[in-house]
Amino acid sequence: MSDFLDTEVPAPRTAPGMETASPEAEAAVLGACLMATPVYDPVADVARVLADGDWAEPANELVWQAVVRLHGADRPTGVPAVEAELRRTGELAQAGGMVRLSQLASAACTATQAGHYASIVHGYAGLRRYQATLVRGMQGARMADPLGVPETIAAHQAELEHLMTGDAGGEDLFGRFGDHLESELDAIEREVEAAAVTGLTDLDNLVHMAPGNVVLVAGRPAMGKSALTLGVALANASTGRPTLVHSLEMGRSEVTKRILSAKARVGLHHLVQGGGAVTDDDWTRIARHLPELSQLPLWVDYAPRVSPARVRSRIKALTRETGRAPLVIIDYVQLMETDQRNSRQSPYERVTEISRELKITAEETGAVIICCAQLNRGSEHRTEKKPQVSDLRDSGALEQDASVIILLHREDAYEKESLRAGESDLIVGKNRNGPTATVTVAHQFHYSRLRDMAPDPEDR
């Protein structure tokens, strides 16, 4: 979206009966913390409820931060201690001075009530954030490019969803290790089905794709990234798992020809030329696979402008329709746009933001996201020409955020007389939940696909 998302939105004006804060609840909570004793200490309970920025009154935020610092250092949080801490940081006057601290202490609720009043403070903060999000949505509607309305809506929807999940999931993400140990052991005892499959036997055995994983498929141009990932999409959809492809680089016609070529084993060059180049045998092969292809749970988004918000929106829609989070393939990540479309961002900053948002999207939706990525020319200056994870272009965040990184390499791309003609190496350079290794497959680019080295029964 436009740069307006970078600006601070003022708190909405409210009519009587539409309050967006409770000064009394804020005073009660802070007062209880200022009156804490070793026996009745509500600070930990309050901290478990409140999030950064929940205080409507800036002075209250300063007092709370002082309380948290003292509590974290195992020191008293009474009025004298907090006054000394605020004086040390030079914030005592901004916090209202000793008079304000005394007023808060006199307004204290009991230690057992502090958690309840903290929930009220947090609830009002959520209401203010919700109203501010709606204001930004209206600003976005006024400033939207008429050709980019779907993206503007998707970005606003993503912000609302983030607001909702941020509130709902926080408490479940914090707790004692032992509280969930039994359920985790029960889960380990059960065999876990992979959330997605690649269709390549050795690769599936090496890489177990779990919900929330981000997988990076990287290589220099013409190494077969699109052939590999479209093959993965076909294999995964063929098992009945919902699959979504964001094709930023290829249009509908090119994707259709590649899928028909790979599935029906019809020469890609025949389909590209069309007409008489497509033989009767080709049409017979295509007709044999049409019923299956038409029923596949495979969706393709051909939009050339894709942002993380659009990806999230598509995932949510397919999850509602199919009841299961899809495998998502993005070809390729460096062509994506950020939700804010900040023209001042460098390529490094843009890809870093996109990488982080995709990782968050995968974790929050349970989808597996496979991203194609370009490598720089580093590998071409090496003797063996083999790529390394460090060759990823534009951002180290791609390496950091990915659960799995697969690097593509073909010896015959550099040595025409290579004894390994027709072979591709899938170098698993990072595998967060397993070993790293190299899987060798056969490339059949005339069919726009990669296959296991073992003979395929369909090819007989």
Task: Tell me about this structure.
Helix 1 (23-34) packs parallel to helix 3 and helix 7 (149-169) crosses helix 14 (308-322). With 460 residues, this protein is an alpha/beta fold. A hairpin with a 5-residue loop joins strand 7 (423-431) and strand 8. The protein has a nine-stranded mixed β-sheet, sandwiched between helices. It has helices spanning 23-34, 43-49, 58-72, 79-89, 97-106, 114-143, 149-169, 181-189, 201-206, 225-238, 252-264, 268-273, 280-295, 308-322, 347-365, 397-401; strands at residues 214-219, 243-247, 298-301, 327-331, 368-374, 404-409, 423-431, 437-444, 449-451. The chain starts with 22 loop residues before the first helix and ends in a 9-residue tail after the last strand. Helices cover 45% and strands 12% of the residues. The model is unreliable at 1-16 (pLDDT under 50).
Write the layout of secondary structure elements.
Blueprint: H1 23-34, H2 43-49, H3 58-72, H4 79-89, H5 97-106, H6 114-143, H7 149-169, H8 181-189, H9 201-206, E1 214-219, H10 225-238, E2 243-247, H11 252-264, H12 268-273, H13 280-295, E3 298-301, H14 308-322, E4 327-331, H15 347-365, E5 368-374, H16 397-401, E6 404-409, E7 423-431, E8 437-444, E9 449-451
Parallel strand pairs: 1-5, 1-6, 2-3, 2-4, 4-5
Antiparallel strand pairs: 6-7, 7-8, 8-9
Helix pairs in contact: 1-3, 1-5, 1-6, 2-6, 3-4, 6-7, 7-14, 10-11, 11-13, 14-15
Please give a quick description of this structure:
This protein has 460 residues and is of the alpha/beta class. The protein has helices spanning 23-34, 43-49, 58-72, 79-89, 97-106, 114-143, 149-169, 181-189, 201-206, 225-238, 252-264, 268-273, 280-295, 308-322, 347-365, 397-401, and strands at residues 214-219, 243-247, 298-301, 327-331, 368-374, 404-409, 423-431, 437-444, 449-451.
